[in-house]
Amino acid sequence: MKVPSRVLSLRNASFLGFARSFNPSVFERKLCCKKKDFLLNFNQVTQSHHAYPFRFLCFQRIVNDTQKLRCLPSSSFVQSRAVSGPYDVSTEARVASMVRGLSTRGNDIHVTPLVVGGNVAVAEGENNVKKNGVSAKSEVEKEAWRLLKDAVVTYCGSPVGTVAANNPGDKQPLNYDQVFIRDFVPSALAFLLRGEGEIVENFLLHTLQLQSWEKTVDCYSPGQGLMPASFKVRTVPLEDNKFEEVLDPDFGESAIGRVAPVDSGCSVSVGTSSKSEFIEMALLIGLWWIILLRAYGKITGDYSLQERVDVQTGIRLILNLCLADGFDMFPSLLVTDGSCMIDRRMGIHGHPLEIQALFCSALRCSREILTANGSSKNLVSAINNRLSALSFHVREYYWVDMKKVNEIYRYKTEEYSMDATNKFNIYPEQIPSWLMDWIPEKGGYLLGNLQPAHMDFRFFTLGNLWSIVSSLGTPKQNEAILNLIEAKWDDIAGHMPFKICYPALENEEWRIITGSDPKNTQTSVLNELCRPWSYHNGGSWPTLLWQMGRLELAQKAVSLAEKRLSIDRWPEYYDTRRGKFIGKQSRLYQTWTIAGFLTSKMMVENPQMASLLYWEEDYELLDICVCALNKSGRKNCSRGAAKSQILV
């Protein structure tokens, strides 16, 4: 069998410019694993400077009475564990730049303190020993950790991610047996909060290597910086009964509908080509990648990973794509439909809130992570300018509360003026009837989408929660969003938190906007009436649990989910208006459902660790305005007039 050129292996490593110069010194180490001896031969490698050094290049296995693992580590390689069969997660904590690995054997209790910001968090062993006493894990938590460990994927004898779903009874897994960048984020946080950083470090480095792959759809190849939506570890047979493991990435060219995840990489639609979906999906994957990179440093205290030359280069490539000039006049990212967690047609094309919130988060992460030097000065300046404009734009134009709805209700249209009140020419008739009665007296939220002559008044949970996480909204707006969630708990949480959006599209609106997508209803399209509140159309997604920003609401949500998830076999999503039923096409033993529950559980128990992932308000951002640098003499800028309202 011919090995595909697009997969990661030793044979095609040279196209990245990797210099294979070997030091003759070889050391051997014996590792006893499940009563079988494995001989690990680590060849020390010296390599020339390159933006993409390999952590592992190749994994070969000789199938006979003995097995050998052969890996070529980079100069940053510290220690790797070979794994036979299911991955046995060991406790690992990193303090500052020190790295050490420990293992758990038999019934020994293994507790590792993780020091972050002067506070000691305890990486728990199987018996859940805590610093201030013993607190037994619930049976649901124990089952969740077991399932999460079973979902781990290994490459070169090291863990590199988790599959999307791991249901033994599923005979048609489609692409759910792959490692998705976005889906792995809650799994990564669960491992990090438990003190197990190796799998996250491996994941970050391997996906970074895949960033340089050649991506092509119908003879079209986008630029550098794109990251794959997912990847799979494949075993390729060689000669003489030998086998080789390779990484096979998917940049969206095999996805259903050929959608590409903008939130995993980062992308902007430049033009109207159908290829823009492919670019977006692979680009926004990088947003999640950058966010996870920052979380790794914050939780472990190990910032050496962020400082690597290849990592810094990868960040710059992503940012160059994100900040590229386009045709749009707005600071928000312009994307096509299906370019985020909602990866099917749901009328979110344009400037959806979820993308803007993740974009803001990634920009703030990058500003923290980028090494300060001459080459990064202009990039940091561009980040600050974009953050300033984006923050103002979302806070001023996306915000909706009772006062704002009443203002829109009285809008005048067809205004042609620099001082126009109705800047986007929104017709008051666009205000949906459900909103007038639904929006509470106290509370508000950020619109789902905004573009000329169009406001999407649906409440999108992920976008609003991440606006809080990234401080995209003002402190007052963030508090109001949480007040609205609390006031409308039955609608947004119901029996299983949280709704991906509210309300659902129904009947003719569903047919026009979704293209009669049967997965976003509970009934067949042959029926005269569709029944909404399913999948992306108002379905309930437990993976959203960990992103809740108010402790008492998070505790309430976790308690609600814990009663059902294990009994229902950890579904991907739930159907019906209140989330009573397991989703009609929901995958069982969905990994990010499991990981989302575990992460939220640990964050509730240790809010100080959760706070590491949040950003404080940056008042300096609004003082940065490109209008002050404009030499055209146009002095009309709405920034100053609105600032007094925004900062209240």
From TrEMBL:
GO MF annotations, alphabetized: endo-alpha-N-acetylgalactosaminidase activity; sucrose alpha-glucosidase activity
E.C. designation(s): 3.2.1.26
Lineage of source species: Eukaryota, Viridiplantae, Streptophyta, Embryophyta, Tracheophyta
EC class (word): hydrolase
Protein name, per record: Alkaline/neutral invertase
InterPro entries with a match to the protein in the record: 6-hairpin_glycosidase_sf, 6hp_glycosidase-like_sf, Glyco_hydro_100
Keywords: Carbohydrate metabolism, Glycosidase, Hydrolase
A Gene Ontology biological process term: sucrose catabolic process
Endoplasmic reticulum in keyword set: no
UniProt organism field: Gossypium trilobum
An annotated GO cellular component: mitochondrion
Family from the record: Belongs to the glycosyl hydrolase 100 family.
SUPFAM superfamilies (alphabetical): Six-hairpin glycosidases
Entry annotated with the keyword Hydrolase: yes
Catalytic activity annotation: Hydrolysis of terminal non-reducing beta-D-fructofuranoside residues in beta-D-fructofuranosides
Functional summary from the UniProt entry: Invertase that cleaves sucrose into glucose and fructose.
Origin: domain of life: Eukaryota
Pfam families linked to this entry: Glyco_hydro_100
